[in-house]
Each structure stands twice: as structure tokens, then as C-alpha cells.
Amino acid sequence: MSFSGETDWSLFTLLDQHRVALREAAGKALGDTARAPLVTGHSGEIPSSKVLRAIENVIEDVITSLSRNEAPVLILNNRSDWGNIRFKDGVGLQMTSNCTTRKIRSDCPKSAPKFALFLKILSIIYKMVQTNIYATKRDIFYTDTICFGNQRVVDNIINDISCMLKIPRRSLHILSTSKGCIAGNLSYTEEDGTKVIYTCSTMAPVPSNVEGMRNLITDAKFILIVEKDATFQRLVDDNFCSKMSPCILITGKGVPDVNTRLLVRKLWDMCHVPIFALMDADPHGIEIMCIYKYGSVSMSFEAHRLTVPAIRWLGLFPSDFERLNIPKNALIPLTKQDQSKLSSLQTRPYIGYQPRWIKELDIMAKSKMKAEIQALTFISSDYLSRVYLPNKLQFGGWI
């Protein structure tokens, strides 16, 4: 990806060039029609013309403020505030329509630099949509590393822009870099017609364009989400996908990236097979499972695209410690941070809908112990793939 080196205010120039056409199409500047809710096409993407219009609306507001000798302000939803979140059992965590907001002011010494970065990234997005170019968040960061400072600044601004405009990042022509992996018998066709085939014996990266996957074909009877890469690789090496029954294995290598979450949702929508989660029996692992199942607070504005409430917890359970007689030297005491995370989990709005989860969390809180999936190797090296998972799947040992 490359850019021509225009000034940071190039979006204003682009807007000025199209202002007459914009007003003719809209009927009147900033009219109700111009601000109507955006409607996605059959592919789930918003038409480029409507994405451009949404950005132009923001810049129109900035220009209007300047023409009135007023300092322009960007108003953003508070994406990290639990007070702005409501829980819906069939969707997960969702941002409320009347949530609290924060302002990025252009006349405040602390926020003015961030205001400028917002306009800079809006300008980059505008040009990419206009010219049908796609880029990763990393690409955008490297357009001006000194100006942005670090990757997290770019990531947060892009998420804020997506939330502010109510437009998915894919429709903003921004792609996410995938860190997750997948294994199992699965084939699909990419947008350009390329045929992709996954197998049970090899692991492959989660595609960067999940929403462009077409014609998914699989004989999988279920999907297993695995928290950690090491456990995922062990199951692939043990040929678990074929030995148990045809299945698909997915790992986000810890906290899942957006593409891994999109893929899980895509497979759920297309394949309609059960999805199970295999996590460490600790607060961190349980929270990761909740991200797949119910979503995260910071991305709650995209919950309908990223969550799969039908996911079932397959293990490892705190109750498994005693039931399987896992050696005490394989258990790990909860740290203060673990206990704080556990207390937070117990107050989450979705926990009340899972009475059996409550019991497992209570067991962990009472014992003050946790365990990684690898603790099962203290029983035998292949206990996970040979005994634990087959028994759980055969006899319904999930919650």
C-alpha cells in the first residue's frame, strides 16, 4: 500500500471537489436523508458511496464549526464503559443507543493532537475507499510512524471511527492481521475465485479476509475452540480431527483477534454445527471463552458480527480437579490478579444466565486454585485427546 504524500488535510480538498455533486445527490447539505442509517448489501459490506458520505458528514460538521469561528469537536461513544453495555442472551454484550460519550476537542492542548490524528486517518480511509485499496492497521501505522507514535494509537482510533460511523472496518477498507490458526477438513472460495483447502493434519493461519470467504464446504460434526496454541498443536499432532470424528479446530492463541472471532461466527452461520470451547481452568481462560461467546466491552458495537452465544464450555472445569484426581502439584494458586479477575467475572451480566458456570466459579473461588489444560498430562501424555475430550463429547460433558 502506498500514498501520494498529500497533506493531512487532503480530505478537505477531496470533499471540496465533490461538494457540488454531494449536495445535488443529498438534496440539501446535512439533511435528514444524508444522515439516514446505513444499509448493508447482500455481502454484509456497506456500499462505498455510503461510506464516503458518512465521512463527508463528519468533515462537513468540522467545516461548519470553523465557518462559525467555533472549535470543531468529535463526539465518541465510551467503548470501555460497562454502564453503556446491555446484555442480550441471543447476541451478547451490546452497546446501548443512549450511551455516554466523550469529546475530542480541537482547541484543547491535550486532545488537539488526537483530533488531528482522527482527521489524518479519516483522510487515509477516504482515499482507500475512493480508490478501492485495502490496507491493514499496520500499513496505516507505517504511513507515519513518528506522527502516530505506536500501533495502539492507530488501533484505538480506527475502532473509534468504526464505532462513530457505525461502519465495520472491512467496509472502511481496513483489514486485520490474523494471529489465529485453523485445522480440519474445510474448503472455501476467496473473493477472487481462489480455492482454499484446509486439512486435518496441518494447521493454517486464519484468513485475513474472513468476510470474503464463499462456498464453505466441510464434513465437520463440531468445532472446537482451543485457547492456547500449544494445546492446539498437540491436538493436531495427535490427529484429533480425524480420530474422534470430523471436526474443525480453531485457536486465537490467547485473546482472539477480530478475524478469529469473525471466522467462528462465519462457521456458525454457514455450518450450523455445535461449537465447544477448551480453555484453561482459570479466570483468564474463562474470560477468553466469554469473548468468543458474548463479546468484549470495547467491541460491543459489533457484537452482532463477532459473537456466538451458542458456544458451550467443554472444559477444563474447576470441578475436574477433584473428579479426575489431578495431582495437587499440577494445580496453581490464584494470584491476587486472578482473584480480582474472578470477582469481576462473577458480576458480569451474562453469568446469571449460566447457573452451572456459577457453580464452577464458586469452586474456583473456594479452592483458590487454577489449572492449565496441560495439567491433564500428569495423568498421561495423551489423556486430553484419547480420554478427556472423547468422553466429554460422547457423554455430553459440557455446560
State the share of residues found in helices, binned by percent.
40-55%
Residue share in β-strands = 15-25%
Q: What Rg, in angstroms, do the CA atoms define?
A: 24 Å
Number of domains: 2
Instruction: Tell me what the CATH architecture of the largest domain is.
Output: 3-Layer(aba) Sandwich
Distance between the termini: 46 Å
Which structural class do the helices and strands define? alpha/beta
Label the overall shape: globular
The CATH topology of the largest domain corresponds to Dna Topoisomerase Vi A Subunit, Chain: A, domain 2
Task: Write down the CATH class of the largest domain.
Answer: Alpha Beta
**Strand neighbour order, sheet with most strands:** 10-7-13-12-14-15
In DSSP terms (H or I, runs of 4 or more residues), the helix count works out at 15
**Averaged pLDDT, please?**
87
Q: Low-confidence parts lasting 5 or more residues at pLDDT below 50?
A: 1-43
Number of strands: 17
Please summarize the sheet with the most strands. 6 strands, mixed
